[in-house]
Amino acid sequence: MTTSTPGAPTDRLLSPSTSMDAVTLRVGDLEQMTSYYTGAFALAPLEERSRGTEVHRVLGRGTTPMLRLVHTPGLPAVDRRQAGLFHTAFLFDDAASLAATVYRAAQDRRGAFVGSSDHLVSEAFYFTDPEGNGVELYTDRPRETWVRERGQIVMATEYLDPNAYLRTHLDQETFDAGPALAGRVGHVHLQVGDIATARDFYVDAVGFEATVTEYSGALFASAGGYHHHVAMNVWNSAGAGPRAASLGLGDVAVTVPGRDDLDALVARLRARGLQHADDGRSVVVHDPWGTRVTLAVPGTTTDELLAR
């Protein structure tokens, strides 16, 4: 008889301890986008590096990278009808931290506030940055309050009054703390051409577990019973083919606990004939629409992130 170690990967699934890492965006105006993300979302520049004609700049909170901006002027703008990014979702520890960031972002007219929702498992606010990339700011409700039916996590999109939320949760001390407050990438929501193909890749090959499959035009998946680390939808992009070079999403980064997780991933990719690169600490693979996905072991430094 064999026993499994808690948090260990299986041949089929990513480890329950899997988490998301910094998202990479290709941007046309590095200074404007840096100014926007630092001003609107209280991220701080952590490090930067030039690579040929490109400049790579990492932003985050504390020592946690949350976003890498890659200056690639000359590329066409984000096309919301194509595969790519729906939004990057920044997760905050509590309602006060979320409210402080939402209030800050709402004052910055370079982006746009596009809505707020109660998803039952979380409370979320949505923005669009100056180059058309979606951003979600959210906090989770306690996991013990999440409802599961028919093997799926129950999620919904219900009205959340943004002004009432701010009146209830915003306080000056938290607002003034700014970048000192914890934040991280909680999930990434993608636009894809069709859901069945997305499931074949993100669930069957990469190893996320489907958590919500009955939401119209979308699929949600995670590791370890989270509501979702990745989501895929066809709301704007049904039938989209491979991505052309453009501004917008450059890389989706996932952190797995150890090399065993990468070995199991590589086995799944090889079994499906999917090309990938493995440098020992990370595995890079592209989804069916050309979106780059990097899975890496913990301890990625800003130097390593900049080198990708």
TrEMBL record:
<dbReference type="InterPro" id="IPR004360">
    <property type="entry name" value="Glyas_Fos-R_dOase_dom"/>
</dbReference>
<dbReference type="InterPro" id="IPR029068">
    <property type="entry name" value="Glyas_Bleomycin-R_OHBP_Dase"/>
</dbReference>
<feature type="domain" description="VOC">
    <location>
        <begin position="19"/>
        <end position="140"/>
    </location>
</feature>
<dbReference type="InterPro" id="IPR037523">
    <property type="entry name" value="VOC_core"/>
</dbReference>
<feature type="domain" description="VOC">
    <location>
        <begin position="184"/>
        <end position="308"/>
    </location>
</feature>
<dbReference type="Pfam" id="PF00903">
    <property type="entry name" value="Glyoxalase"/>
</dbReference>
<protein>
    <submittedName>
        <fullName>VOC family protein</fullName>
    </submittedName>
</protein>
